[in-house]
Amino acid sequence: MATNTYKIPGRSSRKGFFAMLEKFIKIDEGISEVIHVRFLPQILFIAGLSIIYIGSRHYAEKKIRAIHHLEQQVQDLRADYTTLKADYMLASKQSEVAKKAARLGLKEHDVPPQKVVISR
After folding, report:
1. pLDDT, tens digit, 9 for 90 and up, residues 6-46
2. How far apart are CA 73 and CA 79, in angstroms?
């Protein structure tokens, strides 16, 4: 048969974080009717989820701003590329090359090349 044990008044038989929290935090009767300490784990869980939700929202908005900034840079670089390509195409024309060569003292030959025909 089991023996009776004596419990010390004021000591909780529960062990754990929330039992210790209940022992150290003195909650008056008005608050204890509204929020009971046994609901504290659920309240803290919801608060933790809320903090994670807010943090992920801030992280997502930060990433969206970074993506927008990078898209602007890509558009600027694409415009620069188009401008440089057009400048290069203009500079590689035969007339433009002849102008640049004239500055160096070279001139364009006026006589067209002749075709050499070898008969066999």
Report:
1. 655 555 555 677 667 667 766 665 555 666 667 778 888 99
2. 10
